[in-house]
Amino acid sequence: MSLTRKGNVSLDEFRRAVHNAVSQEPFAARFAGLSASGDRRGMVEMLVEMPCVAGLKLGDLYEGKNDAQAARLYERSLGTATESGDERAEELKTSNILTRALFAAGASGRVFLDAICERARRSYSLRAYASCLRDCDCMLALPASLYDDSAENVKYLVQRRKECLQLERECTRKLEAASFKKRGGRQRPSSNTSYSSSSSFRSSSSSALPTIDGKPHVCFTSCPDSVELRFDEARGRHLVAARDIRPGTVLIVDRPFSFSTDAPALGRNCLHCHATLKLEDSVRIPCRDCQTVAFCAEACRKEAWEKYHRYECSVFDYFFENSSNSERQRTSYLLLAYRTTVMQALSLRDGAATTCVLNPDFLRYHASGDAGDHDVSRECADSGSKRTYSPLDYRTVFQLETHCADVEANVNLVRAAEAIFLAKCLTSVLSKLDVVCARETFVSLAAAMLHHLQAIVCNAYEIVENVHDEATRVWEPRNVGAAIYTTVSLVNHGCYPNVVRHSYPNGAVVVRALRFIGKGCELLDCYGPHFLSESKLNRRELLWKKYRFLCGCDACKQNWKCPPAEITSYKCTACAESTGVLIAGARATSHRCAKCEKIIDLRRIEKQLRKSIQKRLCAIAKMYQGNYRDALPLLFEHADLVNKHLAEPNIEGIKTEQCIVQCYNSLGSISM
User: What percent of the chain has pLDDT over 70?
Assistant: First the structure.
């Protein structure tokens, strides 16, 4: 199969061509040997020599600007008449048309200037002052160099800028007055207060990012000193409690090294910070080169362009084209591998706007390609090491488990083909920036892509936003994208997890204790299969196929039933062993623990439990009314008593934990 058609080859076609070529002997046996030895660079070099790979030339593939379409939409917005009598509904309809015009218009044309000014005016008339400020910010950030072809065009830009400056002053004054009134007039804001920063916009629709509880860890920048890293052959690197940890404790606040956006979220979330674009005070700011992605503010558009989007914009559709609904979710991981490479391999030269260089240190990381050459797990887990472990340090990404030599050869073949395709995309973009990639450089970039694809399968996490169901009053998580969190990746799996993750704006993730974690106990996250929803056999099969380990958590070792029994037993508060006495079937008023011989007052505990259950019910009533913060203390009190007196697993503890998760769902990233 010939793949020399520039710009017309899809990833699916390329994968099939590579598979067909390698399936023939002696290539199949040779590739299988490279796969079994974990030789990434060898796998890439073998494929690069094949005609179907060497002849692949990729051109641009993205939805560019269409000024004619933009002009038609803009004229349509001006002709929108108020027919329904609902002036606000008509204004919103017109704003939507203007948004479509903005996305179709080139930033250097007059239609873009007209549309963004008109949308800002409409937002102002709707008293959506924050939205108006975002549009003004976008207009004022346009450089005059975009309009240097004639003095008339520059003059037109200046006129539009003056209009936006006036709107910006009016919006700032309105917001200052509203803030002053809200505080009851006790303290007037200073005259230099700015309401135009993107950070203030984003914080208006989401809770502030929590901080870790306790003293920061000396080595782990994302953790408190209540956790520590350990290593053993069975579990590898893992985190344990350095002291007793109470439920609700913030144990990790991790920043993503890199992130991506799922195809369904491209139109409803900011490409950079993933803030929802569905809330009333939000706007959609377009990319200046394509119509596909959106931003919540000019600051996000600029930062995304400088860090990664300039290297993906012209080839963006390769990541999502011709994918079925089930596969579109996975293609976000292709974009994640691509960005992980871009964000470390490339940098701007001396701050120049258009000139970039390859990072030689990054290329050296992937010069060998041997999966076993860089095993530093023991070194990093050495308790005597004082080396800082930062989620933004590429070394922590490079150290993530890949299972390169453990997976089947056909799996590595698919990933190697994808890695080469991604490297072809990148070199196509770099060629326009006058960056020449020799064969050795290309192989290193492809080996890096392969390394990241393998690590992502085992270590990537979802970025989610929570959507409130008005009928059920439940916050349901919805996927937005994926990210690499190198600190969170140190937390192993448990089929009954004792920590819970929540996404916050800018891709941050917060990990909290879901219930009491005793000193020396391991922190356990859930990688997917939970004992409440999957049998032991199914859980172990799923975990082995994806992560290559046989789960040995308590739920698996003790073969907890799915679902668990409605009635559980008391446990001894001295030795934490189950007494075997069922809470609904106890006839005696006391019981002697068979292990430590402590006398347990069953009647007193039963009375405390009945009283404490009322706290959970009261908390649920507060949650139903939207008072999630007020519900949390009651849930924590009840969780403490349940943990102290009831053996695991127990329905009362599970119900309480589900309520706690719901409360935290409401405090993280949310959407409509």
Answer: 87
Kindly give the residue spans of alpha helices, DSSP state H, lying in 23-109: 27-36, 40-48, 51-54, 67-78, 87-104
Task: Tell me the pLDDT band of 171, cut-offs 50, 70 and 90.
Answer: very high
Per-residue pLDDT tens over the stretch 647-666: 888 999 999 999 999 999 99
Integer Cα distance of 145 and 664 in angstroms: 47
Q: What is the DSSP letter of 254?
A: E
- CA–CA dist 68, 105 (Å, integer): 8
Short-list 600, 79, 510, CA closest to 252? 510
- Pairwise CA distance, residues 20 & 415, whole Å: 15
What distances in angstroms separate CA 32 from CA 36, 67, 85, 404, one per listed residue? 6, 52, 70, 12
Q: Are 439 and 36 in contact (CB under 8 A)?
A: no
Opening angle at CA 581, ends 579 and 586, nearest 5: 145
The CA distances from residue 611 to 532, 604, 614, 641, in Å, are 27, 11, 6, 11
> Residue 480: enclosing H or E segment and its boundaries?
strand 474-484
DSSP annotation of 600 = E
Measured at the CA of 31, the angle between CA 30 and CA 36, to 5 degrees, comes to: 100
pTM, full prediction = 0.90
What whole-number distance in Å separates Cα of residue 423 and Cα of residue 433? Answer: 15
